[in-house]
Amino acid sequence: MSFTALKAVSSLAVLMASFAAPFLIQHHADVKAREKDATFRQQSDQLAELSAGTQRLSNVIAQSAAPALSKEEVSELLKLRAEVRQLHSLVKEMEQWRARNVQLTAQRSAPQSQPETTGLPDPQKVQAYWPKTQLANAGYADPASALQTALLAMSRGDADLLVASVTPEAHSRLTREQWNRHGPPAEEIAAATAWIAASLAPSSGFYIVGQNTSDQNETIFDVFFEGEGRTRKVALKRIGSEWKFDSLSNGLWP
To answer: What is the mean pLDDT of the chain?
Structure first.
């Protein structure tokens, strides 16, 4: 498998892992909660047994006619008392943990009045903002217009518009021309476009928060993805008299 194919597979794996991670973390937390609850019950039973044993030994000593305890009896009593104190401390700690766990469980199950936000970029850095629902086909006369057109194609899963919006290098990645085995180009483009649209589903809008134009034939935008709370670098290149999308960082491109 070529480097391009490995890069595509790696990107897809990262995306799948990002979706799977919250469920794996929650499952792990639930398992740990059950384990701690079982430990708590076991320690509570041990405390009850030791407390009863200590009380029985104290009663025997109090009722005994012997004027003093033997060394063995003193050693046993001290040992039992130390174990009881230790278990009292552990049980208190477990009770605090259980109370906290109940609180966290209630918070997770409570309905949210409004979705959590992932923050917004610094207003002083914002150069442009496009809500996903208001993206338009702005053409390719300048980098910003070409970026908006490409985002429209990617967000809507419009394969034809996306093909018209990208550089030859990006088109090659869409058709997976470097793969050892692949389907017809049209099918590969349709599958890649659908995958990109699904990757952009969490984003509700796009902020341009930075721009690097050190090369007259290439512009790199810093784009903040609203709803996802991440900033990615998007590269566009001049192809003849038009600007076209070339690459997008952090795993949202095949």
So the answer is: 74
Residue pair 158/136 in contact by the 8 Å Cβ criterion: no
80 contacts: CB under 8 Å, gap ≥ 6: 50, 53, 54, 57
Range of the domain at 92: 19-109
Identify whether 115 is part of a domain.
no
CATH number at residue 78: 1.20.58
Number of domains in the chain: 2
How far apart are alpha carbons 137 and 156 in whole angstroms? Answer: 12
Whole-angstrom distance, CA of residue 132 vs CA of residue 226: 9
Q: Summarize pLDDT for 83-137 with one digit per residue, the tens.
A: 777 777 776 666 666 666 655 555 555 444 333 345 788 889 999 999 999 999 9
The answer to whether the beta carbons of residues 31 and 82 sit under 8 Å apart is: no
**C-beta separation of 18 from 229 below 8 A:** no
Residues 238 and 130 in one domain: yes
Tell me: do 102 and 137 sit in the same domain.
no
User: What angle is formed at CA 158 by the lines to CA 154 and CA 161, rounded to 5 degrees?
Assistant: 90
Structural domain ending residue among the three candidates 109, 139, 162:
109
What is the length of the chain? Answer: 254
**Same domain, yes or no: 158 and 97:** no
Cα separation of the two ends of the chain = 15
Under DSSP, the state recorded for 73 is: H
Residue 189 has pLDDT above 70, yes or no: yes
Structural domain contains residue 4: no
| Helices (H) then strands (E): counts for the chain | 6, 5
Mean pLDDT within 140-155? 95
Give the number of other Cβ atoms within 10 Å of residue 19's Cβ.
Answer: 9
